[in-house]
What we know:
- This protein is of the alpha/beta class.
- The chain has helices at 53-56, 77-80, 89-95, 125-133, and strands spanning 73-76, 86-87, 104-107, 117-120, 122-123, 137-140.
- It has a domain at 80-140: CATH 3.100.10.10.
- The strands form 2 sheets. It has a 3-stranded parallel beta sheet. Strands 2-4-6 form a 3-stranded parallel beta sheet.
Amino acid sequence: xxxxxxxxxxxxxxxxxxxxxxxxxxxxxxxxxxxxxxxxxxxxxxxxxxxxxxxxxxxxxxxxxxxxxxxxxxxxxxxxxxxxxxxxxxxxxxxxxxxxxxxxxxxxxxxxxxxxxxxxxxxxxxxxxxxxxxxxxxxxx
Length: 141
């Protein structure tokens, strides 16, 4: 009777590993050749002596800054127009304007007509001027 304690894999679906090093002088490895010797397998990049792909392709030269690049979530002034009094990253996340994964940077595209207190990690020069010109305040956190 089939029960949980005697369930096993289907016959033939699992193959036992060959136990090398038992038996006569060849120990189950056949005769001579690369695969008969210890450490006889090459790595996944080995292509039979042909110059491997990773050596045939040119190296990417120059300075690579992608490891240290600072990424910001950006918001334009035109997006801030719909808010009242105070705006910060939490309010923008709740409104669905940004995702809140990275620091916030306010950019100067668009016009701002109302006085807002905007709190962000960074401001562009034009954004800061436009906020202060509208009678608001740009606070860097």
